[in-house]
Amino acid sequence: MKNLREQLIDRIKTLQILPTLDNVAEKLLVILDDKNSSFHDLNNVIKYDQAISSKVISIANSAYYSRGVEIFSLQRAMITIGYEEVKNIVTCLLFVENILKELKLRSDLLLELWKHSVYVACAARVLAGRIFSEDPQKVFTVALLHDIGKIILYMAVGDYSELVQDTVGKGKSLNKVEMARFGTNHEELGYILSVKWRFPEEFSQVIRCHHEGAVPEKYQPLLRMVRAADRFTTASIHHNADPETFILLKEREGIMKEMRKIMNFFQLDGHETD
Ligand SMILES: [Fe+2]
Ligand SMILES: [Fe+2]
Q1: Ranges in the chain annotated CATH 1.10.3210.10
Q2: Which of the four CATH numbers 3.20.20.70, 3.60.40.10, 1.10.3210.10, 1.10.455.10 does domain 105-274 have?
Q3: Could you tell me the distance, in angstroms and rounded to a whole number, from the CA of residue 149 to the centre of ligand 2?
Q4: Which of the ligands is closest to the CA of residue 149?
Q5: How confident is the model at residue 70 (pLDDT cuts 50, 70, 90)?
Q6: Mean pLDDT across the stretch 58-73?
Q7: Any idea where the HDOD domain is (predicted)?
Q8: What is the Å distance from ligand 2's center to 117 Cα?
């Protein structure tokens, strides 16, 4: 009889979806990860994908960007939204369509994970913009993906959501609680998943150690930002804050606004996931 850890790892092995096998998704990940990519490169890939193009156009026509003139073309839409913002939107779209929806998580759990991921991603991007040691786009993407290991636990463990809320509410370490109960934790499961999906090495390393543990020196700045952003989401203003948390607490309103904006663009309700 296999133990719980082995059963959870088997679950990853038998997962059918492979986001990077999708041709467009694979090309997009390369462009999004390349600091030197241009508006033109992104436009050239998106324009062949009906679903992404129409989403970008509909966002350009949303209340956030609309200036009263209806936009019909992808190029116009991208100019209206702005290149950096389009990159974030496409990253979220890949995460939602290729990972979250494909795995058919229960809709309330999907929303819980999605909200936390977007919150951490928005916070991490603000930090990257302040500290200048990493490309904000890369930081946003890794932060969005940092907790993907939770997907496996949400799928396999009936009361996982309650376990997370209870543990975080009591200020305990989720990793330790998971380890005691499952013999593994969402860091290890996320790491295995990220290797299976052939994420870049630095993404996998950060996913593996986003709560504790050490990564190679060159990935340290990235890890530091994701950790700080993750911690910030449960920090309070009275907390004895470290410098990163202090920056983020001061920017909290702007970060929440950005999170709500993205949540609005990708409204995940029960109907879409049933
Ligand atoms: Fe985590
Ligand atoms: Fe997290």
Answers
A1: 105-274
A2: 1.10.3210.10
A3: 10
A4: 1
A5: very high
A6: 92
A7: 18-213
A8: 7
